[in-house]
UniProtKB/TrEMBL annotation:
Coiled-coil region list: none
Glycoprotein found in the keyword field: no
PPR repeat residue numbers: 118-148, 149-183, 250-284, 453-487
Pfam families: DYW_deaminase, E_motif, Eplus_motif, PPR, PPR_2
NCBIfam families cross-referenced by the UniProt entry: PPR
GO molecular function annotation: RNA binding; zinc ion binding
Source taxon at top rank: Eukaryota
Protein name: DYW domain-containing protein
UniProt record similarity statement: Belongs to the PPR family. PCMP-H subfamily.
Species of the source: Gossypium barbadense
Chain ranges of the DYW domain: 677-754
Keywords from the named record: Repeat, Transit peptide
Any one GO BP annotation for this protein: RNA modification
Lineage: Eukaryota, Viridiplantae, Streptophyta, Embryophyta, Tracheophyta
Amino acid sequence: MASISKICLYKPFSLSFAGSVKDQTLLQRCNFPATCILREQVPLKNECRVFARMPERTGTGVSTYLRETGTGENGDYARNDLDISHLISVLKFCGGEGCLEFGRTYHGLIAKTGLDGDEFVNTSLIDMYAKCGDIDSAVMVFNQMPRLDVASCNCLISGYANCGLFEEAFRLFMNYESWGNKPNSYTYSSMLAICGTLSAIEEGKQLHAQVVKMQYLSETAVSNALLTMYCKCKAMADAESLFERLPQRNIVSWTAIIHGLYQHEGFEKAMRLFCLMRESGIEPNDYTFTIALASCGNMKNIDNCRLLHGLVIKKGMALGEFVGTALIDMYSELRETDDAEKQFKEMGNLTSKVSRNALIKGLVQNEKANEALDAFSEMVRKDAACDEFTFSPILKACASLPSFMSCQQIHAQVVKANFDKNTHVGSSLIEAYTRCGSVEDAEKVFSRISAPDVVSWNSVIKAYSQNGNPRRAISLFRRMIIKGFRPTGSTFLAVLSACSHSGKIQDGQEIFQSMINEFGVSPEEAHYSCMVDLLGRSGQIEKALDFINNTPIKPTASIWRPLLAACRCHNNLRIAEFAAKHILAMDPNDATVYVTLSNMYIEAGLLENAENQRKLMKLKEITKEPGCSWIEVNNKIHKFFSRDRTHPESERIYNKLKQIMMLIKGTAYSTNADSLQVKEDFCLYHSEKLAVCFGLISLAAGKPVRIFKNLRVCTDCHMFMKFASMITDRVIILSDNYRFHHFNKGGCSCGDYW
């Protein structure tokens, strides 16, 4: 016999108590008696079959269907042959397919034929409206019912839950007995699911007690709902205890407890239970394998992961969408991106948007931004659908390079796919443009987001903080609070950085205090480090040292480093030695400490001390990270090192550099130009100068030159960029490992406070 879900494709003939176990179970779920099962069905016309297969059913399609099947306004079937079982099956079909308008049409037909007083029909109407998301209509039908049974109450509870109206669901549950009804197993399963969603552990335990009292614990559906509820409420001890006492365990029970352990990082326990499940004779399904692969990947055991992969292949599941994607995730977690890409290719035509997103995300996580961009380009070439889970990671790839051109191209794809107002994609776009030094584009993206959240606000505040506009950053911070958003630790870090970059000491101190006293956000290592930088950069070295000594946490190397940098800037050798001692105690291989002290000793005339620092570095085999700068031209990244002559355009680059230096020497700013001349031999061929000269000879006139450097820019190169921007009439944007410098017409956005 056909299943209930297919009854709408048949014309009812008569009623009987016959029916498969599956059919009866489906009806009993809402307390429908077995008499609603059809004994015999006669196929309807082809029109009904065609209608059932329509991907989108319009009003015209509904009208045609009703007219052709004789159930319309003028159909004899509507007047004479309409029976309850047919209505129930059609309404079930409408609810399952989301055909709200079709369901409304049948509701009108029900009212016209006087069948709206039947409790089975009304319960089916409630179920249909609830599943279609029209909860108001479901409540209207419910309130008009002369007698409320447990089936109608169950349907409305499910409807409330599906629409997120959990309080209304609880209120309805509390009224069961006042209507002369007792909750059944389906009621408890629904209510336990709601408790899990809300993490309402106390209410869940009360329901657990009722389940035991009503002797429903032996029903697998209820016990599984209890198990899932405890897992979602993070009560894993209760979940494991319940699982041990379960009289019957099916695949759902095992999967629920394994998933719960995985979610709470009990990866070894999850894998142990996975093995026990197989030993007990229950074979894993796609979902169980997906969780097992994720758990195995997080355990970082490549041998076990390959064994599990072999089992998946043996079961013939390796190329399925869910398990195949889980394999990609697993190998990405293990940093085995070659295996992840191999798995993706083996899936062939079975790859989906989900598996493609998993590959891109894995490549980005493993710092393979270029490969991720290639994978995304392949998606675009194949006209594959993209969503927020595609755009967010690929924009992170653009930010990590950073690649302004790629960011612009992907932004165009975002707009084309109508995701430009999406909160998550918008935040990723802001971050990407910020890393590329284009704060104007970041602001435009922020203004387009339909409902910005805290992450969006943090991103745009950070954009102005890093790009030399502290006033705008602080202004946005205050505007964010006025609009009712509660700042997070990331918010305060961005604003404190803005204050540090601009010397706004009072503002920074007030914001730091409000963070603790007004908003209750506990400062972390990065916040303390930022405050040390704020005080030290302004020359208040002693106050910065006092701040470190009074921090409630043990000062780390990251907190001492900005003090050392401030000492270097303000020539305080005594405290520099003190700070260096603390840093090296925690990080003895920090090359920056040795180099900083060596340079300070040279400037102080203590050449022997400087030589000792160099000898220590050589003895400990500590090497300084070489300075490297890069620029993007025509979608290609060009890297440069100090005195680099490996680039094909080296001759033109060096000629351009000499030309600019000659023009600088001829300017009216003779004092600063002389300063550059003194350092010419030492600093002339620094990597950022070579990169900017390549940009000047390669990019179209008037186009900004964007340079990125892995180390902090030196004073000489900073001065050079100011002169170069004035002489060439170009905007030069330089990002070092600390902040952005926007050079224009001889000035810098940092105001020389860096």
